[in-house]
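Reviewers of the previous submission asked for a worked example of the structure-prediction workflow described in the proposal, so we include one complete record here. The input consisted solely of the amino acid sequence. No template or homolog information was supplied to the procedure at any stage.
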Amino acid sequence: MALARAPSLRRRLILQLLAGAAVMALVLYFAVRTAADRATEASQDAILTAAAASVADGLRGTEDGVEIDLNRATFSMVAAAGQDRLFWRVEVAGQTLTGYDDLPLPAALPGGAEPVVYNALYRDADLRLAAVARSVLDRDRLQPALIVLGQTRFGQEAIAGRLANGAALAGLAFFALAVPMALVFTNSVLAPVRRLAEAVSRRGPADLRGVDHPTPQELAPFRDALNSFIGRLRTTLSQTETFIAEAAHHIRTPLSTVRTEAEIALRRAESEETRARLRSVIRAVDESARSAGQLLDHAMVAYRSNRMDVADIDLGVVLDGLARSFAPTAELRDIALTVDPGPGGVRVRGDRVLVESALRNLIDNALKYSAPEGSVHLSLANGDGRARVAVRDTGRGLAGADAATLAARFRRGPNAGDVVGSGLGLTIVAEVARAMGGDFALEPVSGGGTLATLSLPSC
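From that input alone, the workflow returned the following structure tokens.
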């Protein structure tokens, strides 16, 4: 079952950094826009109040009443701030002296010398107005006077808009700069994770030491959990190796005892029917012992393939030792077992147990399928960086089957007939060759027989 893929941590971190940068850019825009609105409003207010006070200074009492001198310089000062329209209203004792008599007044009239600044809608225009209060002598009586000066806000909004647009461009530039920075920062933050993964992936399959690679504090729980898992795996593999060794002993020993007892009973049996039954028992025990042995060999090869005890191996010594161990079996069947050691010092680097298991199965197969008075020839060669062990027999041949078919688990050739076997011998050879970076090949021999070649990288 395929594992569900979690969202990429790198993508998530980049998106979060970019989202933060986008929020900061928006905050920058609105902050500048707000500050610009307030600054331009404060500037306009200062100009309006100064202009209103200047207009108020032009009020004077005369014998004919109150007069006002509207200084053009005052209006020019206000108009210089932009292309806005100006409105004014000068009111004395509740009567409009000059200006727009319907210009809105403030909700609370100014008191003393403090002006009042406010907003109002007038003639479909949004105005900013400043009102100041004065007292004027009118025919020997002090009369209250109110001066209101208003200006449209188009200039203020234009200035604030230009500042906001500048802030928007700055925010976009900041966001554009945040993209490569987010990539750099993300790679920097995730670099310890990558280095930890590389440190673990560089290990060989047999390296079950605890991980001691320096890690940031945040990765320490993951490293500790990984070390705990490695410890449990190491214990499990050790138990597996022990089980295989004990199983081999506890299975082979009883079967050997049963076979010995059956042979003794066969020699003492007088009835031909009993003797036939005992022969069947011996054959069944041999078949069970061979199958159990090869099953255990296969389990051992599968186990050690990922945990090889690598060392230099002299193939000539291994081949000679195996030939001597199979000599009694070959003599019992009158099969000539010969060895050609080839050039001296042919060495490979790998697991000795695996190499011996592969060669033992090759020799066993050759003897098993060779007819009595046949021959099995073992030879060793070295060249092109490869050490080759060839096992040639005069047996039944391949009967059209190829190496891939015969090396499959529990598969036997169509001409296996009554030969005892489990279909695992060549499987073990092929798996050893694959584990050690070698090759295994089967070829029919002219005149009958098979040539099996195991090729391994030489030292």
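The first strand starts at residue 59 and ends at 62. We consider this example representative of the routine output the project will generate in years two and three.
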